[in-house]
Write a structure and sequence with these properties.
Order of helices and strands: HEHEHEHEHHHEHEHEEHEH
Number of strands: 9
Mean pLDDT: 94
Number of helices: 11
Shape: globular
Helix content: 40-55%
CATH topology of one domain: Rossmann fold
Protein name: Bifunctional protein FolD
EC number: 1.5.1.5, 3.5.4.9
CATH superfamily of one domain: NAD(P)-binding Rossmann-like Domain
Structural class: alpha/beta
CATH class of one domain: Alpha Beta
Pathway: One-carbon metabolism; tetrahydrofolate interconversion
Radius of gyration: 19 Å
Subunit structure: Homodimer.
Pfam family, one: THF_DHG_CYH
Distance between the termini: 46 Å
Length: 297
């Protein structure tokens, strides 16, 4: 346990909030995925394979990709790393993703985002075959989440739902305020919560009277990308607070110390949502490998 995590646990013990920690739950998910990967390889000779694509040399993105590759290895999932220069064009990136989509030895594809400014990120995402979209970033995956059809979930929103379920947070009828409108985080989080019978209000950094809206929420999902943006004074006493933000210095989008004085449950940063994101990515890679192997039989 890091000094920072220990300090935050001490804060939580001294206040009303209980921590929603994703570490152990994520580890159990990865362990189950590893067992399934082992069975698949022993029975069919197929090892699940996740291809990661990184454009440019952003240190944070490179570190995150390495972490995913290391977790893949521990789960018995093969990895293929593609690193493209920062000056890569949309057409070049689309061609690389199309090639991976057509490669039968690759079961899941992860395009690390954000990509350089000259690239049309949506066009790049859409080059990923739906059956290999284990990060849940394509329009096909979003539609599946919105309509409740089979498909891959966006990994962070999907991880959030699993975390809420694990902590027995009642979703049916709960008023949930999602702060953020990213197509791979805020928007799909709202869709998944709506599918769980929550009442969802979408907000963002430019929403008028945002604090008043947040104060009405039973559940708050912060995904706005601004450090310490959500203050404790914004929260209804006893609210459940999910901090999906990650900013420089291990700081989330929620002012943790203030939120811990008001909330009933709150996720720490790090150690809350983050581990769930990677665990779901690996789980869905095994799902994809099983489905593709069965389809070829």
């Amino acid at each position: 346990m890091t000094t920072e995590t220990a300090a935050r646990e001490t804060i939580a013990r001294e206040t009303t909030a209980r921590l929603m920690i994703g570490t152990d739950l994520a580890a159990a998910m990865v362990e189950r995925a590893a067992a399934r990967a082992k069975v698949l390889q022993e029975t069919t000779g197929v090892q699940p394979c996740l291809a990661t694509v990184l454009v440019g040399d952003d240190p944070a993105s490179a570190t995150y990709v390495r972490m995913k590759q290391n977790r893949s290895k521990k789960a018995g999932i093969g990895s293929r790393s593609i690193v493209l220069p920062a000056e890569t064009t949309t057409e070049e990136l689309v061609a690389e993703l199309t090639k991976l989509s057509e490669d039968p030895e690759v079961h899941g594809i992860l395009l690390q985002h954000p990509v350089p400014a000259q690239i049309d990120e949506r066009a790049a995402f859409e080059a990923i075959a739906p059956g290999k979209d284990v990060d849940g970033v394509t329009m096909h995956s979003f539609a599946a989440m919105a309509f409740g059809e089979p498909g891959f979930r966006s990994c962070t929103p999907g991880g959030i739902l699993r975390l809420l379920e694990a902590y027995d947070v009642p979703l049916a009828g709960a008023h949930t305020v999602v702060i953020g409108r990213s197509p791979i985080l805020g928007k799909p989080a709202g869709m998944l919560l709506l599918a769980s019978n929550a009442t969802v209000t979408y907000t963002h950094s430019r929403t008028k009277d945002l604090a008043e809206l947040v104060r009405q929420a039973d559940i708050v999902v912060a995904a706005v990308g601004k450090p310490n943006f959500v203050r404790g004074s914004w929260l209804k006493p006893g609210a459940v607070v999910v901090d999906a933000g990650y900013n420089e210095g291990n700081v989330g989008d929620v002012h943790f110390e203030e939120a811990a004085q008001v909330a009933s449950l709150v996720t720490p940063v790090p150690g809350g949502v983050g581990p769930m994101t990677i665990a779901l990515l690996l789980e869905q890679t095994v799902d994809a490998a099983e489905a593709q192997t069965a389809a070829r039989r």
